[in-house]
What does this fold into?
Amino acid sequence: MLIKNIKTLVGVDEDFCKIKKGAAMKILPTIENAWLLLEKDKIADFGKMETCPDRDDEIIDATGKMVFPSWCDSHTHLVFAGSREGEFRDRIEGLSYQEIAQRGGGILNSAKKLRNTPEEVLLENAFQRLEEVKNFGTGVIEIKSGYGLSVESELKILRVIQKLKAISSLKIKATFLGAHAVPMEFKENREGYIQLIIKDLLPQVADEGLADYIDVFCEKVAFSPAETERIMEAGWKYGLKPKIHTNQFNCMGGIEASVKHNAISVDHLEVVNDAEIECLKNSNTIPTLLPSAPFFINDHFPPARKIIDAGLPVALATDFNPGTTPSGRMSFVISLACIKMKMLPEEAINAATINGAYALELQKDYGSIAKGKVANVFITKPIPSIAFLPYAFGSNLVETVILNGKVE
Ligand code: NIG
Ligand code: FE
It folds into this structure.
């Protein structure tokens, strides 16, 4: 397939899949008036129209349109049952997210719903959500468990994710988040639940190859840094690298603990102090920001500028989940990053593509336009400039989705 007359080919990767950090986050290489050749499921070649090959391939004329690498959404909880607009109302009337969680709402509310939902229904609903985000331009996605909170139900979610990997054209990675909350039945025995995660669940998850990563919600309403460390250590024993929810509401040592255990990423970071930024500077752990979550629960946004200006990379993801982000729309995340966190459009696009791929260890195959990478791209509607994408925050500007070299 040959895409011709591309107004701007965005995210061209000349130094092949380097993570973008600090000042380099602003650099988003492009080619004006370009062509892009896809062969089978890979990117074969690209260049300026003057050098366009003369071929009989399937040709798409992209006059006035731009081509982007597909979004890499490195943090979602896309397998869930039901919705939580009752809590949405409660927040409008003055309750906070943490107060709702303490009353047995929040994650426990979703766990109750999920336990009563058959696997086929979860699969069908999650597949529909994947189709929706595919049309918004996402080509790579991470999906967590964490609404089961029992052996049976955590495995049920992870098996749904495994089936999604087989039937979806998106590239999917699975994360085991048994430590999302302490379930009701272990309210007086949190140690019992940690033991269940480490001794019962983890061996089965690893045995069936159901997860690529392990996650813990390190927060006052969930698990302490010391508990998080124990679960990360147990995960490593089974080859599951950590990607950790931390610093959503409190600075309590989650970043330090995650860096100590070589976490791939630390996610949320609505609150982060100077010592934690220093700690991240001496690590390969990727700060992953999820601005639609504080947008939706009306909390403050992560200090992206401070993080980038300290020379660090940032990845952006949706956090698609029924409690804090009932949306999997990456273009809205990019708009929020620009408007609320003062990231430049180029920085936000790098954070949503190549750096997102890094946060899933998929940078060799996804996240930019480079020869030999998987042909996951989207063609926009006619747009005047790159900045128009975050600027026109309410429009879906994705016109054609191509995954694995095929038009979807
Ligand atoms: O990333 N913070 C923890 N987990 C999710 C929300 C979970 C929920 O409220 O259902 C998040 O925001
Ligand atoms: Fe999350």
About this structure: The CA atoms of residues 256 and 275 lie 9 Å apart.
